[in-house]
Design brief:
alpha/beta, Rossmann fold, Arc Repressor Mutant, subunit A, 5 domains, 6-stranded parallel sheet
Length: about 675
Amino acid sequence: MASPDDLLAALDPEQRRVAEALRGPVRVLAGAGTGKTRAITHRIALGVHTGVYAPTEVLAVTFTTRAAGEMRGRLRTLGAGGVQARTFHSAALRQLRFFWPHVHGTELPTLIESKIGLLATAARRQRLTADQALLRDLASEIEWAKVSNVHPDDYVRVAAARGRSVTGQDHDTVARVFSSYEEVKRGQGRMDMEDVLLLTAGMLAEDERVAAQVRRQYKWFVVDEFQDVSPIQSALLDLWLGGRDELCVVGDPAQTIYSFAGANASYLRDFPAKFPGTASVELVRNYRSTPEVVSAANSLLAGSASRGVELRAQRPSGPAVTFTPLPDEVAEAEHTAAKIARLREQGRSLAEVAVLFRINAQSEAYEDALSGRGIPYVIRGAARFFDRPEVREAVTRLRGAARSGEGDDLLETVHGTLAGMGWTSQAPAARGQTRDRWESWQALVSQATEFARTPGADLGAFVDDLDRRASEQHAPVAEGVTLATFHAAKGLEWDSVFLCGLQDGTLPITYADTPAAVEEERRLLYVGMTRARVDLALSWSLSRNPGGRASRKPSRFLDALLPDDHRVEQAAARNRKVASCRECGKPLATGAEKKRGRCADCPASYDEELFERLREWRRERAGEESVPAFVVFTDATLQLIAEHRPSTPEALLRISGIGRSKLDRYGEDVLSLVG
């Protein structure tokens, strides 16, 4: 068992100040990667070892079961295994189950796993036709209302004042469904996760005997990720404390990214005003990332309303952060996959590589690019593109149309089919499942638009191409590249991180239409950047599809980060197809480098002579067919052919960008050139 001196010796000066502040109130502003969990677990262990705390009288509160489990494990190692480490919901549910029968003389309502079933009933009672996406959006809105202590009767007023919205529904309709949902739930003797907090708070507020017993049980409180506390969680914490101030809170205002779900960072910022005499400590020594990554992260927040603590890197210097504009989203995905393949060749574990993006729908291009190189991947927090319900249904409908002989006009059929499912040419204004589903459909529309440029393209060939893409997806395995949204990546870290799709309109997202919402998008990028230990690559695409007008601009958040030469390079990139080295991502300087598409000192990952032969053949074939060269094959596809040298039609089909129709049209020529 570690002694008190041993516990303190393992900490840096700031962490030691946290550990030695055994009596509350204490506020810890902990920057990303600064060892906050180490500091607070050593604080708890020191309190136990010195006799200030009885282990069973300490409650450490976290926001995820994973974080709670990690904290319990560390406390056991430090000799403080009797301390309770739970989420807000877990701690509240435990108290509710124990006290409810004694207080009310009845069984506790049954906890539901999902609101969707009850919401469907509530919507029907209000004569509202609601599909799964709308039901999920309504569920998210009701969760926000309940954690924000907003009653159905007050919803219209509060939602209007705070700019809340649910796609296609006015505030009155949402309020009626909310009220009906509560009636249905009570009538069936059910409760949801928000009720766990609300009922526990109500029980403690109304029954002084219960409150006194809970306060005798827990005398010392620690709350992690305090910037994510919601109004109901803050109210419950106040009831647990009962006027006491033996509380240590830990958080980072710069990582507040859940305001839309009810989180309120003001509880962390205003903590000293609420608790006079607060000891406030800043953890600034970043042990996770290289100085290059830390400097970029600090620059992102400098001078903004989101600025938190200024991090100080403790690791040795590493590679420079890279900034790469690419011609289009396909090229961006292929470029990222090529860099990951190079890391694998250098011995980097794929489990230490992540590709992060703003929304789930962006994953499809990266799934395809990684699959084309035989690189396994795992998707965190979302289904793979072709496994998403809206995508599966769309492909099934398109397949049915093809088999029935419908769809003489490919794009007209795709547009009509998806419109029948709810797709529109204009994106929905609101966020949530409706927006996510629209993005998935829009990805299919973009795919169809690109495919339609192929001479003779029809619906059957397009469906075959979609099936091929789906069949090539890799099953999730432990040793694979992580694909995740910025939100899903919070709390995680990797050696190499690729932040992709960083163009204005995607980050910040288009519906971030207030200064506060835009600042939250900035913090989202900060969270993404601070996930990287060694390699950090930022990229964006100048157009959505190959051949599209290069009108996109890099995210406004990159203005302070881009070196001067990258600003010049960005302007030049709009007027040429190759903006950077295919291998390392650095700007190309000379005419010879631009012609090659790579730096003079970067070895090619493919057969360059074969690549040039393929380009010459493509130029001639495009001339014969009177189409742009990329319609035959993109440079990225030719590069993959030159890298993998397929020798059979089946092997050629496994190359990203080659479907059955292109195999039939060009396969014989390509295989001859490869041979």
